[in-house]
Amino acid sequence: MLYARSSRIAGELRTLTVKNVNLAQLIWDLTVFVQDHFRKDVVVTELFRTREMQERYYGKDTKRVSNHQRWSAVDIRYWIYNQREIQAILSFLKAYDSYNRLAIMRCANRHSRTVLLHNMGRGMHFHVQYRGPRVQQVHFVPSPLA
Question: What is the rounded distance in angstroms from the CA atom of residue 4 to the CA atom of residue 66?
């Protein structure tokens, strides 16, 4: 199942289907993948970010603009998955890179357009971003250990 950490985020998930339908589809594809392979849920911990929220994270008058402010990024809870599941999720999401029109994220040597596993002071999480055409669910075959 797909869950939102709060009622605000649940409303934002509904809005995402209008603001960035392709990212919404990607998150749904991820939910199906995680449910089918691991029998676990996907929990969205952050979606849309206001200017005020951005300043709380990066300091007053920051010039930094987040894809969260553009309806192009979603944060997903990390700690509910084991290491094997985390690697499979990263591989699944990186498969969308060739369709994604956003810049490559070079943080932490991940070199992906779509997914970054990081901690910006509020705990480790998957940062998933996407701006591009709608694609059918990417076909991903997990390793025999998955």
Answer: 20
Between CA 122 and CA 135 the distance in angstroms is 32
What pLDDT is stored for residue 146 in this prediction? 39
Residue 31, phi then psi, degrees to nearest 5: -60, -45
Q: Is the pTM of this model over 0.85?
A: yes
Task: Convert the pLDDT of each residue in 70-122 to its tens digit.
Answer: 999 999 999 999 999 999 999 999 999 999 999 988 765 567 999 999 887 67
Position 69 pLDDT exceeds 50: yes
Sequence-separated contacts (24+) of 98-104 with Cβ below 8 Å: 99/130, 99/132, 99/133, 99/135, 100/129, 100/130, 100/131, 100/132, 101/131, 101/132, 102/67, 102/72, 102/129, 102/130, 102/131, 102/132
